[in-house]
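HUMAN:
Could you generate one sequence with tokenized structure?
ASSISTANT:
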Amino acid sequence: MKVGYFGEPGAYSNIAAMQMIQGDYVPLESVRAVFDALSNKEIDAGVVPIENSIEGSVNQTYDFLFKSNFSIVKEHYLRVEHCLIAKQGVQLGDIKYVLSHPQALSQCSEFIYKHGIKPVSEYDTAGSVKIVKNYNKNTYAAIASELAARINNMEIIVKNIENTHNNYTRFFLISENPVLPAGHSKISLAFSIVNRIGGLYNILKVFNDDNINMTKIESRPIQYNPFNYLFFIDIEKNDRSDHAISLIRKMTTQFRVLGTYESAPVPE
């Protein structure tokens, strides 16, 4: 099985993929590329980030999930431990610039500010290590995983530089084929509604009446309909969830079940 993920080898999506499913791991340059590779049948499954406990949701993933016909088949929470990585022999005081994905830079903003280092945005954490490796300068470093440092034979200057150690990213495994998990599971839904008084309230009331726990709600602008919104909701499946979904489907203007999947333990 070919499993695509966003980033270079050693990216956090790569680590999540290895913890979620066995297969041949295929690095891809963007979240969009993961969905495109699935559409073109170049991979059998994809791993994409959906939200971070510090920086919030990955909006691009939500947009592609709604537009695609793929299903969420698994979720996973990965503890994100950021390292400051540079060439062998480089000291912390030598570093003037640090490269990484914008979310990683934001998650390490206090360390960066404290040491007077200039952040430079790149497309990927592990890809930043690869870029720094090819620089003929000792004033550049990258923020990425310990695995990315090992793969590129680079030195870890400082470990765990994130603003808080309670830093987790939630990932989805997506596939063309939906699953029906037997155990405790979640259902991810996406829908839009007519913008009127009580519109969203009536949806949430259905969950309440059927004793369904909602674990997440997110709104995203509809790109082709200014100032109207899509809602993404995760609920815990119970013996009334099918009834609730059938009611909500009739109350919405667009509706999709994005997937039903086993609930991963939420970090505390």
